[in-house]
Amino acid sequence: LADSRCNHVLCGDEGDKSLSGSLELLRSLGLIESTAVRGLQGAPDKRNVSMHPLLSDTCRLIVEEHPSIANVHQDQVWVATATLLHRAAQRHSEATELNWLGRYELAPHISALVGTLPANSPPAAVQEAVHAARLAMDHLDRTGAHLQAEQLGRRALHLSRNLPEDDPAALRVTCDLARILINHGRLGEGQEL
Prior knowledge:
Order of helices and strands: EHEEHHHHHHHH
Largest sheet: 3 strands, antiparallel
Radius of gyration: 18 Å
Oligomer: single chain
């Protein structure tokens, strides 16, 4: 999502033969590279898949230039993408073994999702994206990237306006952004939220 050479972490369990076959074909054509990534304490090993820029750009062109192809499952793609990023961020935040690099690498992808998710997306996609943004905001703020955390928080807050006012995702991102602002001496702005 963030750039033309995306890294995606795929779980090796489930044994989905269709996905495995597709990945093997792409690897044999030199369009992806796959390397093992050690799982966190007892978690199964994963595969890190790097996509060739040509493949990534081609997929983007298909989606942008042939919306009829993309529209068939567009809502499902948004929900799946947001859910994947939320779960990855959640897994990193709940891990007992800190992986700062992994958490930091997720932030641009989450930011790209929050910035590009259409306003008319399914509520589930918006909720998942906002939850992922909250986790990324927290990490960015705790590691000293306060401005990035605030910017992501403001975009997530704007996106959350597509949800009902009492939606837990909307309420939590509002509270988290207010906390970040207040903690950095911007009491008035934090209280306004």
